[in-house]
């Protein structure tokens, strides 16, 4: 079978529950950067389709350099001017890409907001946090200063901090508390879509659990759409409804979060999901699993399937033939030549598979392990 | 280069790199230099400053050829006193009949030498004080920084005048006076940069490897403050040249050598200001301003190439 | 109490610790042998009643960052020191390397107490190495890979062939062929490669012990496993001991032999990884395990953040956040008062699994 006979659109339509206009729809988004003025443009995002309903949580997973953060910034046109966008980014049916600046400003506050990683640097050290939360409300909400301050206090309570903390300066807060403040700021103008870029990276497990619980609660209460970006598939599958795994600027796997994490169809998805072990799983005891090699340089993406040089189960054809997303089960798609050959990757693991030296062997071992045992 | 899959033990034998490591290192350094030059070139002021400096440096080197030894001598003067510029004396003559242009050329040497040496001395003291004060915290840093502050609030010129008055009149006195009075700014800057570098994890790694104070300061702090020091040097040179001229103008320079400041003082004593001998008083003044400007422009350009976000990335 | 004493009681031979894949293979099955391999070996590194107190600034109270810790690392053993940020685990690791002088207690290495004179420390640092969390920060951006790896050799005046030693360390750290990396600068490497360079820099002096502070926390998921596999392989091939400081329990599960859970300056639970992580006894360990994404138990989310080391509560230092005390279970076990008022003893640095919890002890005593 050829990889092109499954077209992308039907699968996308099937993936979205219910009709009507989704909260966010991204069609064939491409982002290219010129690294220095005049140099050839480097693709960072190479054709991504996404769909998100209100109240839904979408996780985007991938290594650094896979384009996931660029994608997040592109959704609100927060990229530097050297970046070129093409495709469509429809928020409530309105294309953000072609929007006027005035409208975009309105959307950035009231329509969608971003929670960045590293709350330490995103807060201004010389202003009280209450004023920082109230600032967008004052700028856009036409509220009186007193009302805005009151609202800031309410928002802090909403994210689990005492309202009295409006008087605090960022340095008086701990890392977890600062991340809460960042979330309060993102909620200040009642957005419909929240994009969280690695919201819990660098936080301890306990604080991470607190923040994830908070985000989940807010999404459920306020019927927000959430896009959460992380390299930790376990965290995403725990929090999100659907998962998209990105590699080299493309979505290589997409589907219901739990299913993707437990039985990834793409070998890259499998490598990511086995990176963080489940405690008690004897197969991972004294057997850490990684993926040899580094993500490709966006300026020199390999021919064929971009993942083939690192793939533990690559076939000869992978070096020449580019792979598009194809149906890999109910509501699932994956961009791997092995998908659709037979169900489950375990059987396909042998045969013409090119086993790689060293830790690659461990990785391929992990692949069959994960697919075999599952949950 | 071949990619061979080696097992652990065997790789140790492959010590000799395919190309000599030193040749590669040299190529790499050249490459870095070329990149520096490419970025430097985009600063037009810096390029102008550099061009002026190259011309002035060449003139200073060629002074004996262009002007000749005898042109400095009062007794061998060929022209009349205070002649206006003419075909023979392009910038006229002084009160002894010497060619002002020739004196100006000779003065270039002294001004540049004093500027460079004094700046070198000043920056060396500043860097030493700054690095040690930043590295050794505690009472040492407190004492040293108090001294730095004391020098910082002392008016540089007054201090330099005081020093040159009590010491023997010579070029070295001038250099010493300038060097000893202008270092506190450098010390403060270098100390701040040292503190930033010292907080980086690689310092702790070096300590855990067993590196002592000397190792950390020489191998880690110094290379990281070097760009700052380099930029600071070029900026201090112009300050040193101005100070040298000022000291000479105030009659505190070495009377036996011809310098731009000395020329200005001679001109003032000869009454050039009141009698309108512009050719005597303007050229040295312009030369001082031009060289100081050129060094400042270069310093600013170097600073912006090397220092855009020093400490954040390379 | 020292490890040698417990070892004598428990038996077991040092030879079991030899870097031998087969020996570890048997342990891989996860069966907790009563005489775990190497339990009897005298510890290579050992902390005895170590306390580190930082003086308070301008009238603040002093901070008891490490407040009485016994911890042993035996030859060829990987010990994970687990805890939240601010629990004192990094300070403890630094004091074990002599980077911080303990306020009281002592650190012994290879049977001899650590001396803090600079010459003695330099000799010690040849044998015990540090790997830091952020590989980008722990490499000087102006040094090449070669210079970074050779730094230790130069500090200690290595007499042999420097280039050969550097190449050997790089290839052992998985950067092959090593010559290709000699002249690169850190910014030209990926995060995983940088961490390999840092590890190579530690390996080049052929140390007996590596102390790694969150060695994979800032790395991507795919690289994480590779670096952990490297640490595990170094133990198997070179017999290297390691103390790994982390907040990541999965890491401990992946590579460690023993785990010590730290809370507010004290170790609250310690033992073999299988035992502590699959059957945790301390409510704090239980809570930490329960909030992991794939945990099967109901998550117990502790409110608030670790309390301040300058205000260590009386009694059990965890009692203010303890879910067992809050739910009244401790009351039922009859230890609630003890939790609030009676301080717990310092746990032994090695030997059988131990827990510092009044409730766990009471429950186990009741169960027989």
Automatic annotation (TrEMBL), chain A:
Q: Which domain of life is it from?
A: Bacteria
- Compositional bias annotation for Low complexity: 364-375
What spans are recorded as compositionally biased (Basic and acidic residues)?
Answer: 1-11
Keyword tags: ATP-binding, Cell membrane, Membrane, Nucleotide-binding, Transport
Name the Pfam families on file. Answer: ABC_tran, oligo_HPY
Protein family (similarity comment): Belongs to the ABC transporter superfamily.
- Kindly provide the name given to this protein in its UniProt entry: ABC transporter ATP-binding protein
Automatic annotation (TrEMBL), chain B:
Please give the CDD domains that the UniProt record associates with this protein. Answer: TM_PBP2
Name of one Pfam family that matches = OppC_N
Q: Where in the cell is it found?
A: Cell membrane; Membrane
Domain of life of the source:
Bacteria
Lipid bilayer topology: Multi-pass membrane protein
Q: A single GO CC term, please?
A: plasma membrane
Q: What SUPFAM superfamilies would the database entry show? A: MetI-like
Q: Which residues cross the membrane?
A: 45-67, 110-131, 143-164, 170-190, 225-250, 278-299
Query: What keyword terms does UniProt attach to this protein?
Result: Membrane, Transmembrane, Transmembrane helix, Transport
**GO BP terms in the entry:** transmembrane transport
Assigned protein family:
Belongs to the binding-protein-dependent transport system permease family.
UniProt-recorded name of the protein: ABC transporter permease
UniProtKB/TrEMBL annotation, chain C:
Looking up SUPFAM superfamilies in the UniProt record yields: P-loop containing nucleoside triphosphate hydrolases
Question: What PROSITE patterns is this protein classified in?
Answer: ABC_TRANSPORTER_1 (PS00211), ABC_TRANSPORTER_2 (PS50893)
**ABC transporter domain segment(s):** 45-289
UniProt keywords, alphabetically? ATP-binding, Nucleotide-binding, Transport
Q: Which Pfam families match?
A: ABC_tran (PF00005), oligo_HPY (PF08352)
The UniProt annotation puts the region (Disordered) at: 1-44
Among its keywords, does the record have ATP-binding?
A: yes
In terms of InterPro entries, this protein maps to:
AAA+_ATPase (IPR003593), ABC_transp_ATP-bind (IPR050319), ABC_transporter-like_ATP-bd (IPR003439), ABC_transporter-like_CS (IPR017871), Oligopep_ABC_C (IPR013563), P-loop_NTPase (IPR027417)
Q: Which NCBIfam families match?
A: oligo_HPY
Family of this protein: Belongs to the ABC transporter superfamily.
The protein depicted here goes by the name: Peptide ABC transporter ATPase
């Amino acid at each position: 079978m050829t990889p092109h006979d499954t077209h992308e659109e039907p699968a996308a339509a099937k993936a979205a529950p219910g009709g009507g206009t989704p909260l966010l729809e991204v069609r064939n988004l491409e982002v290219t950067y010129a690294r220095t003025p005049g140099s050839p443009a480097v693709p960072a995002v190479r054709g991504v389709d996404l769909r998100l309903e209100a109240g839904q949580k979408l996780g985007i997973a991938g290594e650094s350099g896979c384009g996931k953060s660029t994608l997040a910034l592109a959704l609100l046109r927060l990229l530097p001017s050297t970046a070129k966008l093409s495709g469509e980014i429809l928020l409530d049916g309105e294309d953000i890409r072609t929007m006027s600046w005035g409208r975009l400003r309105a959307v950035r506050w009231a329509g969608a907001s971003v929670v960045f990683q590293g709350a330490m640097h995103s807060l201004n050290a010389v202003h009280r946090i209450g004023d920082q939360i109230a600032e967008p409300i004052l700028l856009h909400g036409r509220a009186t200063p007193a009302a805005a301050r009151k609202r800031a206090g309410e928002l802090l309570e909403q994210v689990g901090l005492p309202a009295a903390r409006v008087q605090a300066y960022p340095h008086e807060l701990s890392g977890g508390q600062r991340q809460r403040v960042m979330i309060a700021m993102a909620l200040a103008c009642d957005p419909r879509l929240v994009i969280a870029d690695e919201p819990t990276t660098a936080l301890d497990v306990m604080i991470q659990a607190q923040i994830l619980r908070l985000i989940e609660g807010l999404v459920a209460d306020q019927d927000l759409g959430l896009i959460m970006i992380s390299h930790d598939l376990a965290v995403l599958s725990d929090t999100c409804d659907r998962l998209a795994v990105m590699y080299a600027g493309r979505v290589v796997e997409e589907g219901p979060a739990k299913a993707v994490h437990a039985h990834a169809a793409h070998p890259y998805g499998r490598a990511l999901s086995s990176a963080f072990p489940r405690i008690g799983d004897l197969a991972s005891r004294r057997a850490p699993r990684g993926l040899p090699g580094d993500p490709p340089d966006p300026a020199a993406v390999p021919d064929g399937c971009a993942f083939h040089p690192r793939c533990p189960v690559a076939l000869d054809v992978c070096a020449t033939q580019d792979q598009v997303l194809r149906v890999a089960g109910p509501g699932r798609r994956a961009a791997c030549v092995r998908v659709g050959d037979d169900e489950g990757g375990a059987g396909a693991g042998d045969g013409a598979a090119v086993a790689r030296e060293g830790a690659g062997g461990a990785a391929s071992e992990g692949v069959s392990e994960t697919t075999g045992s599952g949950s | 280069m071949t990619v061979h899959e080696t097992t652990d033990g065997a790789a140790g034998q492959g010590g000799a790199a395919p190309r000599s490591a030193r040749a590669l290192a040299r190529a790499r350094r050249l490459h870095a230099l070329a990149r520096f030059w490419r970025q430097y070139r985009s600063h037009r002021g810096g390029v102008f400053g550099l061009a002026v400096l190259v011309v002035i440096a060449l003139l200073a080197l060629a002074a004996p050829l262009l002007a000749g030894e005898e042109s400095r001598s009062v007794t061998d003067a060929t022209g009349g006193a205070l002649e206006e510029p003419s075909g023979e004396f392009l910038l006229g003559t002084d009160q002894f009949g010497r060619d002002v242009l020739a004196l100006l050329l000779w003065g270039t040497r002294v001004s540049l030498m004093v500027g460079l040496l004094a700046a070198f001395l000043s920056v060396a003291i500043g860097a030493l004080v700054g690095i040690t004060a930043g590295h050794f915290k505690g009472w040492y840093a407190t004492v040293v920084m108090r001294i730095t502050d004391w020098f910082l609030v002392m008016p540089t010129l007054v201090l330099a005048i005081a020093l040159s008055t009590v010491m023997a009149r010579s070029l070295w006195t001038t250099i010493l006076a300038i060097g000893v009075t202008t270092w506190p700014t450098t010390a403060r800057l270098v100390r701040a940069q040292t503190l930033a570098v010292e907080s980086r994890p690689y310092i702790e790694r070096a300590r855990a490897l067993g590196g002592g104070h000397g190792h950390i300061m020489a191998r880690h702090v110094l290379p990281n403050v070097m760009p700052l020091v380099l930029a600071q040097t070029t900026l201090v040179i112009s300050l040193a040249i101005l100070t040298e001229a000022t000291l000479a103008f105030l009659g505190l320079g070495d009377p036996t050598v011809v310098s731009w400041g000395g020329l200005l003082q001679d001109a003032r004593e000869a009454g050039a200001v009141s009698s309108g001998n512009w050719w005597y008083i303007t050229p040295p003044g312009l030369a001082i301003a031009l060289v100081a400007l050129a060094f400042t422009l270069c310093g600013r350009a170097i600073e912006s190439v090397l220092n855009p976000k020093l400490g954040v990335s390379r | 109490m020292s490890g040698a004493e417990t070892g004598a009681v428990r038996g077991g031979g040092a030879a079991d610790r030899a870097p031998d894949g087969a020996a570890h293979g048997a342990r891989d099955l996860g069966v907790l042998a009563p005489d775990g391999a190497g339990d009897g070996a005298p510890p290579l590194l050992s902390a005895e009643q170590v306390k580190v107190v930082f003086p308070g600034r301008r009238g603040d109270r002093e901070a008891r960052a490490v407040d009485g810790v016994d911890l042993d690392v035996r030859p060829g053993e990987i010990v994970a020191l687990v805890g939240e940020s601010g629990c004192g685990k990094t300070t403890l690791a630094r004091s074990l390397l002599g980077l911080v002088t303990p306020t009281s207690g002592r650190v012994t290495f290879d049977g001899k107490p650590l001396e803090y004179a600079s010459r003695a420390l330099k000799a010690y640092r040849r044998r015990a190495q540090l790997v830091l969390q952020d590989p980008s920060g722990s490499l000087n951006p102006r040094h090449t890979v070669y210079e970074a790896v050779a730094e230790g050799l130069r500090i200690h005046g290595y007499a042999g062939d420097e280039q050969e030693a550097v190449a050997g360390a790089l290839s052992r750290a998985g950067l092959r062929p090593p010559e290709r990396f000699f002249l690169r600068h850190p910014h030209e490497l990926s995060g995983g490669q940088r961490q390999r360079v840092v590890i190579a820099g530690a390996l080049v002096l052929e140390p007996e012990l590596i102390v790694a502070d969150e060695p994979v926390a800032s790395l991507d998921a795919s690289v994480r496993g590779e670096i952990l596999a490297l640490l595990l392989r170094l133990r198997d091939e070179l017999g290297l001991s390691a103390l790994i400081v982390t907040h990541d329990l999965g890491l401990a599960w992946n590579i460690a032999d023993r785990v010590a859970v730290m809370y507010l300056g004290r170790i609250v639970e310690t033992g073999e990884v299988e035992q502590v992580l699959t059957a945790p006894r301390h409510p704090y360990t239980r809570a930490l395990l329960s909030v992991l994404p794939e945990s099967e138990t109901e998550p117990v989310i502790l409110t608030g953040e670790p309390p301040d080391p300058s205000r260590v509560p009386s009694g059990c230092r965890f009692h203010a956040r303890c879910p067992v005390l809050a739910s009244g279970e401790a009351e039922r076990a009859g230890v609630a008062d003890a939790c609030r008022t009676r301080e717990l003893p310092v746990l032994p640095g090695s030997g059988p699994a131990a827990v510092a919890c009044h409730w766990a002890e009471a429950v186990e005593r009741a169960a027989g």
